[in-house]
Design a protein that fits this description.
The chain is mainly alpha-helical and about 775 residues long. Helices cover about 60% and strands about 0% of the residues. Helix 17 (about 400-415) runs parallel beside helix 20 (about 445-460). One of its GO terms (biological process) is cilium organization.
Length: about 775
């Protein structure tokens, strides 16, 4: 009946010899040492038994109030072994076997039969009734005989399998006789035999699936140092528990895992904590087996066996921290059964916390965090509404710190996708819940960091979300920023980065920005960050801080000051160096934008010369980034309007003329800005000398010529349909302000020149008419 035969090699000679006391002691202490090592896992995460314990744990406080994750093979054997008397525990030594192959035909009897004598008729229906039936239907006799022969073969196969498993358990030496292929063949025989038992109307007690699988579980104890063999047997055990409905059982209190299933998953969890075993888990197909187990459980609508699922999900969480396994988990769609275990979207928020359910959700959100960036899993997360369900979890279980932490870890990975942010911002309660979590766990930096990160991702793209959480600005300022100012620890710096970025994005909403009650405090915090951290080591922090300062200063207008003059000056002192002392164009850009908002104030402009900012701006006019040039010219427009005397220099007029000539009509937007600056500088101002008196004669002629030619070209292009009206509107008044050619006096030896004929005639009458 069975085509696969497993070789049973001969036992080594010393098995039949009495063992000396030293050998017996060593064998006894092997398992004992492993157990002690496993129990010490919480105190010593670097132990050889589970070297990844410090990372791969069920809970952050594993081993305290939660189920202990430390487990050993001997503990497993104790959990599943039947109660025995002292006499039954004294195993007789195996006799010296002869060399032969094990086949489906059965095994030779030893001096001690490991199982009861098989009663063949226990598998058959009543023989008397069958005889009458066959007398009446001779045509069925051949079928009956074939079936009887197959049953006999099956019984012999099961008898042989149970014998092998018992010998494995009773004699540690047996395991050395089996190679990986032998173990694989044995698992196939077990699975096929158990599948055949499904169709038997009656089974003897010793041939029940649970009895055979219990023997298999006991045999695992002998393979603690051979991981691949052990995981082959574990896969066989777990898969058959699933296939034969032996994973859990019903009790009055609900579903609970069977003793053999619970022991099996606890042991698997121990080996999943070591990431060096990941490849073996995959190669032996255990991820598929775990998927089948989870699917089996979620198909039951009554309840969930929390005790067993806690460890099943813990194994999956450990394994999916591996990038290759994440891809495999996506292919077999692990998200679907996990989504079924998450709360219904229409569930009442006031339901009481179930600690067991919370423990499962902690594992599930940990798996979702691992799979969030895997392409296929991400699509399934959207398909099965997992984003909305995670948000619901946070609303219902806001008092579970670890669950909130895991949920935010998953969302922080997912929220980099705009689609996820769109889903979260649809319900205001989702955003408010994250703010509540930040406030409730204000001493937990990871929660603060991830909460701010998720909110910042959302408000970056959705204006409505900024309005919803605008009330939280003071809270974020206190918890994420003020508490961590000056602290150089990585987590504290990360909190500053995320908090500053969140506030910077919120105040882009005009209503949120205008209603700030602590604008000056925010400004002082931003100055402290710029003063305490350098851009070389903390580039992201400096970039976010200067961007936040730009957004804050937008509301600080001369007619309605928003922050104090001292704060404004302090920020200015830190903005200037950032415009030239960094190779990061983004930081330079944000610094120039901040300066643009600052230079609207005359009091700020008075400080520019002390900081050599005019010279810096002239350098930035040649910057390779067009955005930097645009905002540089914007700052110069403000300065030329508020304090144009700062630009009254021959060097600046020369630079402006060169830039205008270079850009001309190829960059009309920049040309318009330069013309605005020149308009402000050339207009007559009380108490100031004419611009041409400081610009230098050559620069005056050059600028006037450029203006004249640019005006003619601009008019012609506008007539041809080009959109250059803004530039034209700047050129017309500027051309009027350009100096006209001077008319020399013709009287010999006079040498005076006049801008127009009227002034020349007046001079002639006064000086030369009578001569």
């Amino acid at each position: 009946m069975f085509s696969i035969n497993l070789k049973f090699p001969s036992l080594i000679n010393y098995m039949s010899k009495p063992k000396d006391s030293l050998t017996a002691h060593l064998e006894k202490s092997t398992i004992s040492n492993i157990i002690q090592t496993a129990r010490a896992s919480l105190k010593d995460p670097s132990r050889p038994y589970t070297p990844a314990e410090s990372v791969r744990t069920l809970f952050t406080n594993d081993g305290t109030s939660r189920p202990n994750s430390s487990y050993s093979l001997k503990a497993m054997a104790a959990d599943i072994a039947p109660k025995r008397t002292a006499r039954q525990n004294n195993y007789e030594p195996l006799p010296q076997p002869t060399r032969r192959n094990i086949s489906s035909g059965g095994s030779k009897k030893s001096t001690r039969e490991p199982v009861k004598t098989i009663q063949e008729d226990t598998f058959n229906v009543d023989e008397t009734n069958m005889k009458h039936l066959l007398d009446e239907r001779p045509d069925l006799k051949e079928i009956y005989e074939e079936n009887k022969e197959e049953k006999s073969d099956l019984l012999s196969e099961i008898k042989e399998i149970t014998s092998i498993l018992e010998k494995m358990h009773q004699h540690p030496e047996v395991r050395t006789l089996y190679e990986n292929d032998d173990i694989e063949a044995l698992t196939v025989r077990i699975t096929e035999s158990l599948n055949s038992l499904r169709f038997a109307t009656k089974k003897p007690k010793w041939a029940q699936p649970q009895v055979i699988l219990k023997l298999l579980g006991l045999a695992l104890e002998r393979f603690e140092n051979e991981i691949r063999k052990l995981l082959k047997l574990e896969r066989c055990l777990l898969q058959n528990l699933v296939d034969h409905d032996l994973l859990y059982k019903k009790k009055e209190s609900g579903l609970v895992g069977t003793s053999i299933a619970t022991a099996a998953v606890k042991l698997l969890y121990q080996y999943s904590k070591n990431n060096q075993n990941d490849a073996i888990f995959v190669e032996e197909g255990l991820l598929n087996t775990l998927h089948a187990a989870v699917t089996k459980v979620v198909s039951n609508e009554d309840s969930v066996p929390h005790d067993i699922m806690l460890f099943v999900l813990g194994i999956v969480k450990n394994l999916t921290s591996n990038a290759k396994i994440q891809e495999l988990a996506g292919k077999i769609n692990f998200i679907a059964p996990l989504a079924s275990m998450l709360p219904c979207l229409y569930l009442d928020d006031d339901i009481p916390d179930n600690p067991k359910q919370v423990h499962l959700l902690i594992q599930i959100t940990g798996i979702l965090r691992n799979l969030a960036l895997e392409k296929t899993s991400y699509q399934n997360i959207l398909l099965f509404h997992v984003i909305e369900k995670i948000a619901k979890i946070m609303q219902i279980h806001i008092n579970s710190q670890e669950l909130i932490s895991n949920s935010l870890r998953a969302l922080s990975k997912l929220s980099v996708q705009q689609k996820v942010c769109s889903i979260l911002q649809e319900n205001d309660e989702n955003l408010v819940t994250i703010v509540k979590a930040i406030e409730k766990y204000r001493e937990n930096l990871p929660i603060i960091i991830r909460g701010c990160f998720v909110l910042a991702n959302i408000v970056t793209n959705f204006e409505k979300a900024r309005k919803v959480i605008a009330y939280s600005i003071n809270l974020i300022l206190e918890i994420a920023i003020q508490k961590n100012l000056g602290d150089m620890r990585p987590d504290c710096i990360d909190s500053l980065v995320k908090g500053v970025r969140l506030i910077a994005n919120i105040i882009t909403d005009k209503d949120a920005g205008k209603d700030l009650t602590q604008a000056d405090n925010i400004g002082k915090c931003l100055f402290t960050i710029l003063n305490s951290y350098n851009y070389t080591d903390h580039e992201e922090l400096i970039l976010n801080t200067i961007a936040c300062a730009t957004n804050l200063l937008f509301y600080d207008q001369p007619q309605s000051p928003f922050i104090s003059e001292d704060t404004r000056t302090l920020i200015l002192s830190k903005v200037a160096p950032l415009m030239v002392q960094t190779l990061n164009a983004e930081i330079t850009l944000e610094a120039v934008r901040a300066l643009g908002n600052l230079t609207r104030h005359e009091s700020v402009c008075k400080e520019l010369n002390n900081l050599q900012i005019i010279d810096i701006l002239m350098l930035l006019m040649d910057h390779s980034d067009d955005n930097v040039v645009y905002y540089t010219l914007g700052s110069l427009i403000n300065i030329s309007s508020v304090a144009k005397q700062l630009l009254y220099s021959e060097a600046f007029f020369e630079k402006a003329g060169m830039q205008l000539e270079a850009m001309a009509l190829s960059e009309p937007e920049f040309s318009t800005q330069i013309c605005m600056i020149l308009n402000n500088l050339c207009v007559v101002s009380r108490g100031m000398v004419p611009w041409e008196s400081v610009a230098g004669e050559d620069n005056v002629k050059r600028i006037a010529g450029i203006i004249r030619e640019l005006k003619m070209a601009c008019d012609q292009l506008i007539a041809n349909g080009e959109e250059l009206q803004d530039l034209q509107s700047m050129l017309e008044p500027l051309q009027e302000m350009m100096p006209k050619p001077f008319i020399p006096c013709s009287y010999p030896g006079c040498g005076r020149k006049f801008p127009n004929q009227e002034l020349l005639q007046d001079h002639w009458r006064r000086r030369h008419e009578d001569e």
